[in-house]
Amino acid sequence: MRYAIIGFSVAAVNAVKAIREIDKNGEIVIVSDEKKVYSRPLISYLLAGKIKKENIGFIDGDFDKKYKLNLYMSNTVDKINFNSKTVFLNTREKLTYDRLLICTGGVPIKPSIEGYDGKTKGIFTFTNLSDAEELVKYIEKEKIKEAVILGGGLIGMKAAEGLLGRNIKLTIIELTNRLLSNTFDEDASGILEEKLKSLGSKFIKENTIKKIATKSEKIQQVILSDGKILKTGLLVLSVGVKPNLELVKGSGIKTNKGIIVNEYMEASIKGVFVAGDVCEGKDFISGENSVIAIWPVAAKQGKIAGYNMAGKKEKYDGMFAMNSVEILGIPTISFGITNPAKNNAYEVLKKNETNRYKKIVLKDNKVVGVILVNSIERAGIYGLLIKEKLDVSGFKNELLKDDFGFLLLPKDFRKHF
């Protein structure tokens, strides 16, 4: 059996481990357009100068030998012929396969802005290691002291953390009315905003960049939708990421936002599997397919895909949106549906103290969403409640208490775990 994997991050790593549990000797070929395997969540610490490049990995140096891999690093795939089961590389090499795993991840969304053609110096995205490295080089060369970040989502916040680590003053421009609007509500966002303000950062909300002014091909100013002008020598575009579907365009593979898979992580073409940020798989809470572009989902999907590629039937029962991230020293965790529709279907419990915030979202007396800021000690139990769909009506009033814990759960439930 010959396995081909396109992309080499957490989904691929877990797929390899799963394949080798079942098939010790089948050939595994991996193609990656990057130089090394690394942890993407750590690039903000690299930007801040807190860690070195050699410490950004998450697998052992002998991983490829241990798992008997044939690696094509710093290579790109030009196209895939799904009929002949052939992968064509930019080097004109051809790789054939019996089972294929596509884990090409996501690519940054580059907004259409007047005056920006992709060549302007001083404008960066922030999704991979090369982005962080190029940012560091430019900051040091140009002696950047101030910067603008377009987008107040998770990528924007991690970029902010990295830049603040270099004592760069920031202006953050966000289209919505708050930071981290996809997962946080106004109360949770407010805590983060106050922390950023204390570090000298400024915010411009419900606005965006309309035009960029340059001089000698370098960014000089950004002009906002309301006409306001900001001088800056550095702009980070962090408006979002979308699944990288380039290789499957026109192939007949079913896609929506991502590549659609069944419960075995298999795409609409037999023998082709998908995992990670490019994948549109089952959402545990809604039961519908969706793209959940986070590390633990990619890891789980990669493992399930690997098992099925090697012939062990394993079903993916879905996962839910979750983010566990420390931003500027503030630990935060969010699970599931955090900003529910304002109707009678949902019940919201809140506890808002100075710099500490808890929010529990219930539906039919079951936890479906959680936000925790500076108070994350019970996160594992809340996650378990979501996963097990436990009726919490008997202890609903205990959910927000600081001493809420495992012993407050029903005896039969505790015994099971």
Question: What topology does this entry show?
Answer:
Layout (H helix, E strand, L loop, with lengths): L1 E5 L3 H13 L4 E5 L11 H6 L14 H4 L2 E4 L4 E5 L4 E4 L4 E3 L2 E4 L3 E3 L14 E3 L3 H14 L3 E5 L3 H11 L4 E6 L11 H13 L3 E4 L3 E7 L2 E7 L4 E3 L3 E3 L3 E3 L15 E2 L11 E3 L4 E4 L6 E2 L4 H15 L12 E6 L2 E7 L9 E8 L2 E8 L2 E8 L5 H10 L22 H6 L1
Helix pairs in contact: 1-7
How would you describe this protein?
This protein has nine helices and 26 strands. It has 417 residues and is an alpha/beta fold. It has a five-stranded parallel sheet with strand order 3-2-1-7-19. The chain has a five-stranded parallel sheet with strand order 9-16-10-11-12, covered by helices on one side. A five-stranded antiparallel sheet has the order 22-23-26-25-24. Strand 11, helix 6 and strand 12 form a beta-alpha-beta unit. The model has no long low-confidence stretch (mean pLDDT 95).
Q: How many DSSP-defined strands?
A: 26
Distance between the termini: 39 Å
- Helicity range of the residues? 10-25%
The helix/strand class is: alpha/beta
Largest sheet: 5 strands, parallel
> Globular, elongated, flat, extended or rod-shaped: what is the shape?
globular
The chain-level mean pLDDT equals 95
User: What's the arrangement of strands in the largest beta sheet?
Assistant: 3-2-1-7-19
In quaternary terms, these chains amount to single chain
Count of helical regions: 9
Low-confidence stretches: none
Rg, please? 23 Å
Approximately how much beta-strand content do the residues carry?
25-35%
